[in-house]
């Protein structure tokens, strides 16, 4: 760190707030993806129902993360920048808008969700280390909801594949 002043160094709080903003971008992109995919999944009852539930969950998560950022005096970026090239790649795979890619999109969604859970795990660790107990409680709830939603999607995979095959 030679040559850097103390004020130019990134603090643990800065890192935490940046990761919160990154997670907000993840959730925002997930909402965009669900909205673009929803019309193509109407004939797949379980997929469509899961996506509707996920949309409600994701909107709530955006609200919760925005509240955390606000609590720490950080304004949410207007455009919610993308967080990395890997998320851009995943989201482009998810938003192909073609019903024929349903199985690929569902599998991609599972991996995307794993990234969200890992992000929430990291945020929870940071909140704990910084002593933000109310943040930690909220982040643990978000992670549990995301995990439950992911588990439900995994459980529905046989039904999704069966419905997909019946339509082809």
UniProtKB/TrEMBL annotation:
Name of the protein in question: DUF892 family protein
Organism the protein comes from: Gluconobacter cerinus
One Pfam assignment: DUF892
InterPro entries: DUF892_YciF-like (IPR010287), Ferritin-like (IPR012347), Ferritin-like_SF (IPR009078)
């Amino acid at each position: 760190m030679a040559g850097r002043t103390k004020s130019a160094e990134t603090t643990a709080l800065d890192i935490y707030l940046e990761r919160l903003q990154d997670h907000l971008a993840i959730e925002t992109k997930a909402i965009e993806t669900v909205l673009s995919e929803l019309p193509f999944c109407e004939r797949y009852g379980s997929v469509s129902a899961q996506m509707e539930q996920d949309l409600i969950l994701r909107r709530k998560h955006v609200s919760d993360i925005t509240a955390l950022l606000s609590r720490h005096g950080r304004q949410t970026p207007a455009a919610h920048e993308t967080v990395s090239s890997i998320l851009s790649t995943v989201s482009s795979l998810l938003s192909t808008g073609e019903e024929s890619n349903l199985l690929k999109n569902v599998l991609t969604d599972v991996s995307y969700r794993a990234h969200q859970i890992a992000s929430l795990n990291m945020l929870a660790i940071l909140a704990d280390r910084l002593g933000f107990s109310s943040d930690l409680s909220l982040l643990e709830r978000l992670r549990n909801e995301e995990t439950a939603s992911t588990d439900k999607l995994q459980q529905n995979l046989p039904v999704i594949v069966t419905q997909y095959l019946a339509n082809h």
